[in-house]
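Researcher: I'm preparing a figure for a lab meeting and need a structural model of a single chain. I don't have an experimental structure, so a prediction will have to do for now. The sequence is pasted below. Please return the structure as tokens so I can convert it later.
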Amino acid sequence: MNNHGAPVLSVVIPMYNEADVLPLLVNRLRPVLDGIGVSYEVVAVDDGSTDATAAQLFGLRRAWPQLRIIRLRRNSGHQAALTAGLHRAFGQYVVSLDADLQDPPEKIPEMLTLARTQNLDIVYGVRSDRSSDTVGKRSTANLYYRIMGRLSGVTVRQNAGDFRLLSRATVDALKQLPERQPVYRLLVPWLGFPSGEVTYVRERRAAGRTKYPLRKMIALAADSVTNFSAAPLRLATWLGLLAFFFCLCMIIYVIVSYALDATVRGWASLLATVLFLGGAQLLCLGLVGEYLGRLYSAVQGRPAYFIAYDSAEETSRQPAPAVP
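Model: Understood. Here is the structure written out token by token.
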């Protein structure tokens, strides 16, 4: 499909081992899109799944021509799979949606209507009720949005995840950014394009297991901080100043102790000083190393993902690849 035959709407769905929830997703998503009254494509990005996700997608595509399949050669992560889908989507408007049905596809027509009637480039899906999430997940999510709003200087929509609608101009702008590890929850609001929001109640995962455990949430938070703020480096500077003043105090203490002939008792102060300075130095080196690691990754220029197959590019001489 070329730009002249581009659909009005693209729905990008990153997938990793979603065989259990995929039939439920199709049963809810297809009626919504068929009834929306515009041309569309569904870009399913298979992020190196090891279950029957790919096989199910090829089976569904035989009866659903609007379903487009992109397969990555290996598991590259949610944000990389989302990037692959956004960069290769054809639509005038692009909606990103997770496969777990926690974000309702029934909100897509409302998003599209709002964007077209008010000439908006971005429509965020904002979670008005997260009671289906655990207390720990709600607490860490709220903490994430508050901290990133302060550190990055970007006006971050509270409780807005990766469920959003983007105009073609917004997608093209994102494609121009040289981000190696994009965090779209911050990149999209950083653009500052005209935006609106629709609210919804977040549901429980329809089937399968979460693909965002605590480990990945921490990694996302680390990428967010180091991609959008130099505050950790400033923290290292303040720690260095604090260590310097602490050392001055200890020098005064040593001089006074020497004058009072009480220098034999200096082992505690010496140990405290060594431990404090060692901890501060290691912390500062770790923070600097985080940024140097990202610079090193950027200099290498390695792609975040590799496309193995895109059904939009298949020809009569290029059959669909075998799937397990």
